[in-house]
Amino acid sequence: MTVSSTDLIHHAYIPPAGFAAPQPGVFKASTVFFPSVAAMRHFEWKDKSAYTYGLHGTPTTYMLEERLCTLEGGKQCLLVPSGLAAIATVSLALLRSGDEVLIPDNVYGPNKALAEGELMHWGIGHQFYDPLNPQDLASKIGPKTRLVWLEAAGSVTLEFPDLIEQVRICKAAGVLCALDNTWGAGLAFAPFDLEPGSEVPVAVDISVHALTKYPNGGGDVLMGSVITTDESLHMRLKLCHMRMGLGVAANDVEAVLRGLPSLKLRYAAHDEATRALARWCQTRPEFAQVLHPALPNSPGHRHWQVLCHGEPGSAAGLFSVIFRPEFNQQQVDAFCDTLKLFEIGYSWGGPISLVVPYDIATMRPDWPAHLARGTLVRFSIGLEAVEDLRADLAAALTVFA
Length: 401
Description:
- By secondary structure, the chain is an alpha/beta fold.
- 36% of the residues lie in helices and 15% in strands.
- Helix 3 runs parallel beside helix 9, helix 4 (83-94) packs parallel to helix 5 (109-121) and helix 4 crosses helix 8 (231-243).
- The model has no long low-confidence stretch (mean pLDDT 95).
């Protein structure tokens, strides 16, 4: 008997239902089959009641979306190909020519670049505000302001803003606020319940999250999420998301789903190690300043304590140091090159520690008064033994001897 290709494609066998395992199934599809023409005409993807096309969702993506809503306290979630894509989706969905967006001066750099590039070219204005001065934010909200970006903590200089007051200012002005919640990861604080027990709930309108970082945890996936609690706002974002054709790969979703069960344990381990190393760096004479929200002298420490309560597992695995001004850029670069356990590379949240030097003068229009003068280096702490990382730092600091 000769088997035809039709027999291999249109096979009668269907696996029995009821299979269950620790990891959910991975469904890869562009085309989705409908049982009838009537079903094709009436199935709806917007409320997740059915499947219509792979770009609009599969059981795998729906599973991750719902788990991320649980993580951050939201009700609706969109998945996008990166954290920056999450930021871009929000800005493109909510802003039109003639509108204005306000951005904290210490924001994730590509968010600034988006505002200064595409948004400005499309007639959308922007202003930068001081993240440590809520009144500066309040004074810059005007009749054209449609969106305010928030970030806690700043991704390089790690200032922690008075997030509760910032949200209240936006609400009072009737302006939408979107938070880059990658640092908090849904664990350090709840973006949709910033002040539990408050008579008037304090909540951001939108939380974006670079799942590339802690939810994945392996340094091998690019993905982002956009989470909301308001159905109408979610639909504005979702329709823009659909029109731009944004989608994520099923195997990448699988990797993030695999990382979620250990997220809280890993985040706490990163936090514990980072605090220990930041405190040790405070004892070193080479540094003019050590930046980490849990350190009493770090900018915004009090706001971090109020929101995150200072408990273990309430701060991410990032800290920055500013070298004394007598050390030049070449010396600092040599320090970074000398490190053995810290790889030179962007991003964070993975198992391997990273180091990157930054030039504050190119990132901010004016040198902030709360930052010491000197070259800044940011560390992302991985899951190596703290004593090994400390020894590596100590050995590399001998370049300044």
